[in-house]
């Protein structure tokens, strides 16, 4: 039997979480949803929700702070696993077609080109910036500032994760309890607008992803590892780079030193492993001892400069 | 504006004085071409990377605004941040005063700290907590409110009013117990007797007893004796005794007993005749 694609598996896991929350709602287990997930009095709070709640309520709540620390530790241990495997947004965007942009392919290529270029631009070989501040951090700052000014968790109103769970629960309430409210229409509509029109939500806007990225630089486990003996590039010198092209985070799996944020931004989605023609990529729980990713990659500047001047 | 400043900086630094955006585009195209070559070439990437490095350095020299953010990223980020601030303005949309679970009486605290995880609704042993409707205010949508109007059919064996968890949890409200953010925090020494979730209000047009049909249901339902009869056997609420537990509203049969939902003046009835309302805000 053919091995299941990681993408299919991710979809299944995302829906399983959704179903679990839905069941929990009616069985009174008190597991909550992803805004505050856990058993009874113990919850793992959404870290962004906690920060918003903190600046909006201006009250320090020890239990919430402990939960925040727990989630930071989880991010260090598992990296950005949440983004690929649990967050419903990528799955929804895969399943619901977006507005097709005319130059989509060209844009994607440009984006990839830029990522390679910028990464190598202003830093010496081997030195990798752990966090690259992109537009997501603007949204994060805005969300926290807004929460502080207006005194309520502003981003929670439009968070696609929250809206997804709200949609499920509101529809369940509509049919189970006859709870009629415009929210049953408005909540899915806002979610749909985000899914359809903000196709680059995860990479450009998501403040939760930005917050996770701040911490995930310290993650060392489950990082993609390239088996040099199998990799077409390392073993045969073929410029394949199927892994880098497949990576939704624009990471250069083959040469992480050259990519924007190194592997801290890896969501462990396994797209690269699926794309690799030589099946050379694995996700070991602990970093491999040979440390091939930590070895500095020589960057030979100054060669073939004329080739770059295409204009 | 910040974006314009960035533009200015870029234009000063662009060697050939070309339009900044076009310049950036050109560089990207060049890099892209390189990347394409990169993949085709069997020589390995380093040469191409080197070239790309030079171009990259050129393109990002003027572009980074803060922390290496590209100009495009900066504009997007600013727009997103501004959108967040603008969204905060819904705070000033009108809001209905709602009855909240025990510990949620400080409305600012509740709206400020609730992240809408819904745990309180799940664990409530009497099934009285429901998510607030968007009609009651955008800011408070999906925050916990008390819904005393659920029908017996939906409730099954659940009580449908708030007893401060006296029966199910020894007097400690489960909702506040599981609230992860502290949005629901009952004051020290909060009990069923001294909690104030709201006040029962009787609609005299809709009340069966006030229409002299001899109903005593709310009077019997009230656990605090806050409802008494006047000289004509019509119920009145003693606001000093009422704690807003909702037992009366849950018990009231006026809405169900009028099959077409109309009172004697042929006015459409939209709720039960006795409802718990939040009067203090």
Outline the structure in words.
The complex is a heterodimer of chains A (311) and B (281). Chain A is built from 15 helices and four strands. By secondary structure, chain A is mainly alpha-helical. Mean pLDDT of chain A is 81; it is low at 103-126 and 291-311. In chain A, strand 1 and strand 2 form a beta hairpin. Chain A has helices at 6-27, 47-57, 62-78, 81-86, 88-95, 104-121, 135-150, 160-177, 183-197, 201-205, 207-216, 232-236, 242-246, 271-275, 305-308, and strands at residues 36-39, 42-45, 225-226, 281-282. In chain B, the strands form three sheets. A two-stranded antiparallel ribbon of chain B has the order 1-2. A two-stranded antiparallel sheet of chain B has the order 3-6. A two-stranded antiparallel ribbon of chain B has the order 4-5. With 281 residues, chain B is mainly alpha-helical. Chain B is globular, with a radius of gyration of 31 Å. Chain B has twelve helices and six strands. Chains A and B meet through strand 1, helix 2, helix 3, helix 6 and helix 7 of A and helix 2, helix 3, helix 4, helix 5 and helix 6 of B.
Show the helix and strand layout.
The complex is a heterodimer of chains A (311) and B (281).
Chain A: H1 6-27, E1 36-39, E2 42-45, H2 47-57, H3 62-78, H4 81-86, H5 88-95, H6 104-121, H7 135-150, H8 160-177, H9 183-197, H10 201-205, H11 207-216, E3 225-226, H12 232-236, H13 242-246, H14 271-275, E4 281-282, H15 305-308
Antiparallel strand pairs in A: 1-2, 3-4
Helix pairs in contact in A: 1-8, 2-7, 7-11, 8-9
Chain B: H1 2-13, H2 20-40, H3 46-62, H4 71-87, H5 107-113, H6 119-123, E1 129-131, E2 144-146, H7 152-155, H8 166-169, H9 174-178, E3 199-202, H10 217-221, E4 227-229, E5 235-237, H11 247-251, H12 254-257, E6 274-277
Antiparallel strand pairs in B: 1-2, 3-6, 4-5
Helix pairs in contact in B: 2-3
């Amino acid at each position: 039997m053919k091995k299941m694609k990681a993408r299919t598996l991710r979809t299944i896991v995302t829906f399983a979480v959704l179903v679990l929350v839905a069941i929990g709602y009616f069985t009174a287990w008190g597991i909550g949803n992803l805004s505050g997930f856990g058993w009874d009095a113990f919850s793992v709070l959404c870290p962004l929700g906690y920060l918003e709640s903190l600046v909006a309520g201006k009250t320090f709540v020890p239990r919430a702070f402990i939960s925040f620390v727990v989630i930071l530790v989880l991010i260090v241990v598992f990296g950005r696993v949440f983004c690929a495997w649990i967050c419903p947004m990528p799955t929804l965007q895969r399943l619901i077609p977006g507005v097709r942009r005319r130059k989509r392919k060209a844009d994607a290529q440009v984006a990839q080109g830029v990522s390679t270029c910028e990464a190598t631009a202003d830093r010496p070989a081997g030195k990798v910036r752990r966090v690259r501040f992109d537009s997501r951090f603007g949204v994060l700052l805005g969300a926290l500032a807004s929460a502080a000014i207006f005194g309520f968790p502003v981003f929670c109103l439009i968070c696609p994760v929250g809206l997804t769970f709200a949609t499920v629960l509101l529809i369940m309430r509509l049919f189970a309890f006859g709870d009629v409210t415009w929210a049953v229409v408005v909540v899915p509509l806002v979610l749909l607008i985000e899914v359809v029109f903000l196709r680059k939500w995860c990479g450009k806007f998501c403040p939760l992803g930005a917050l996770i990225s701040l911490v995930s630089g310290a993650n060392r486990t489950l990082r993609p590892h390239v088996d040099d003996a199998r990799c077409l590039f390392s073993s045969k010198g073929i410029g394949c780079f199927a892994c880098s092209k497949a990576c939704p985070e624009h990471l250069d799996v083959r040469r992480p030193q050259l990519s924007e944020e190194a592997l801290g931004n890896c969501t462990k989605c396994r797209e690269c492993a699926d794309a690799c023609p030589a099946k050379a990529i694995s996700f070991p729980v602990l970093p491999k001892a040979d440390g091939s990713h930590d070895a500095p990659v020589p960057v030979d500047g100054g060669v073939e400069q004329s080739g770059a001047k295409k204009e | 504006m910040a974006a314009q400043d960035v533009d200015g900086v870029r234009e000063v630094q662009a060697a050939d004085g070309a339009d900044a955006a076009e310049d950036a585009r050109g560089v990207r195209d060049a890099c892209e071409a390189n990347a394409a070559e990169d993949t085709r070439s069997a020589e390995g990437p380093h040469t191409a990377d080197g070239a790309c490095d030079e171009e990259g350095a050129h393109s990002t020299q003027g572009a980074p605004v803060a922390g290496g953010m590209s100009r495009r990223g900066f504009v997007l980020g600013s727009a997103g941040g501004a959108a967040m601030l603008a969204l905060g303005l819904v705070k000033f949309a009108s809001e209905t005063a709602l009855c909240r679970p025990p510990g949620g009486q400080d409305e600012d605290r509740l709206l400020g700290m609730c992240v809408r995880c819904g745990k309180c609704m799940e664990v409530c042993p009497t099934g009285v907590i429901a998510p607030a409707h968007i009609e009651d205010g955008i800011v408070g949508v999906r925050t916990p409110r008390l819904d005393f109007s659920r029908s017996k059919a939906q409730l099954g064996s659940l009580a449908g009013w708030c007893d401060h968890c006296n029966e199910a949890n020894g007097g400690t409200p489960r909702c506040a117990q599981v609230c992860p953010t502290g949005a629901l925090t009952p004051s020290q020494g909060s009990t069923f007797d001294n909690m104030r979730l709201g006040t029962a209000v009787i609609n005299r047009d809709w009340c069966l007893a006030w229409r002299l049909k001899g109903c005593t249901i709310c009077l019997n339902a009230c656990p605090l004796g806050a409802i008494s009869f006047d000289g004509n056997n019509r119920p009145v609420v003693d606001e000093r005794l009422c704690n807003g537990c909702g037992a009366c509203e849950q018990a009231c049969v006026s809405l169900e007993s009028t099959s077409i939902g109309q009172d004697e003046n042929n006015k459409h009835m939209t709720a039960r005749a006795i409802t718990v309302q939040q009067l203090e805000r």
